[in-house]
Amino acid sequence: VNNTFSSNSPLFLYYEIYNLGLSSNKESDFEQTITIKPKEEPDFFDSILSTFGLKQSEKKLSLTSQYKLPKADQQMYLQLDMNNYPTGSYILTVSIKDKNANKTVSMNSELAWQ
After folding, report:
1. Coil, strand, or helix at residue 50?
2. pTM score, two decimals?
């Protein structure tokens, strides 16, 4: 994993959102959800549980924010404080739901916290 972070090199997110639908008031209206969870390799018991439609509870943290802004293209900045997380590999997911266009896009990245 080349996305390695630590308390000496904190985790900052920057991404751009393009072509959001605009309302009749010329406003974008979208929901951003950021989820971080440990990357866990499935083990033998997970595969047996999933065969029966059962899952162990996921350990994850999600942050959802609502935005109404006067343009279709947005630049987003965020710092995540990982100092209380154990070291290891994590999956970071950013999902954007465009409420005007009724579309959702998501992107995943793997990161290592040391």
Report:
1. helix
2. 0.80
